[in-house]
Amino acid sequence: DGGITQSPKYLFRKEGQNVTLSCEQNLNHDAMYWYRQDPGQGLRLIYYSQIVNDFQKGDIAEGYSVSREKKESFPLTVTSAQKNPTAFYLCASSKLTTVPNTEAFFGQGTRLTVV
Amino acid sequence: DQQVKQNSPSLSVQEGRISILNCDYTNSMFDYFLWYKKYPAEGPTFLISISSIKDKNEDGRFTVFLNKSAKHLSLHIVPSQPGDSAVYFCAAKSGGSYIPTFGRGTSLIVHP
Q1: The three-state (H, E, C) secondary structure of A21-34, written as one string
Q2: How much of chain A exceeds pLDDT 70, in percent?
Q3: What residues of B are in contact with residue A89 (Cβ under 8 Å)?
Q4: Does A41 touch chain B (CB under 8 A)?
Q5: CA atoms of A13 and A80, how far apart (whole Å)
Q6: Residue A96 to residues A93, B29, B78, Cα–Cα distance (Å)
Q7: CA B111 → CA A17, B39, B73, B105, distances in Å?
Q8: Over the stretch B56-82, which tens digit does the pLDDT of each residue have?
Q9: B41–A40 CB contact, under 8 Å
């Protein structure tokens, strides 16, 4: 079955630590995204990538970094510079097309908590 | 500035009745609109979409209406079921972009 897999489902981080969230897809999608969900804030775009070895900042990229070494993988690192990292993180992917009727597919999310 | 707005954070409906979730947008370049459904601690799943060349799209119990002049769309669920209880996100895309812009979501609770 094709889909997007995020791991771990729950992650705890001590203040000052960097942590990396995994995202893998086998949908053969070119575009991948990271969103952050906070209560009452909806889904805010952190980073996105449309091709291997290339990515762009979204609306709230500060304190985060990403890499895209393989088409299937788009890991997100939450660095110690991110002042409020506790949130629900969602990875998504889609076809890279300007044809409008294509939707993004989401993983199950990772709940990150700073302790 | 929010380009996609869902002004009702929550909605409570009786089972069997109609649920109407509203969404407004400000970017006139948006030409494709999507609704996603999200359960707690899970990723959103695609529900239904509509192109700007249409004013209605129906899929079973779900219908999306688009009023371009008012920059407004709505999702109707008829009849509502307790399993429909979830957060619903409205999203929009503009021509030439593959990245959806999301609203803040509306939490729907359907009471038995």
Answers
A1: EEEEECCCCCEEEE
A2: 94
A3: none
A4: yes
A5: 10
A6: 9, 19, 34
A7: 43, 16, 24, 19
A8: 999 999 999 999 999 999 999 999 999
A9: no
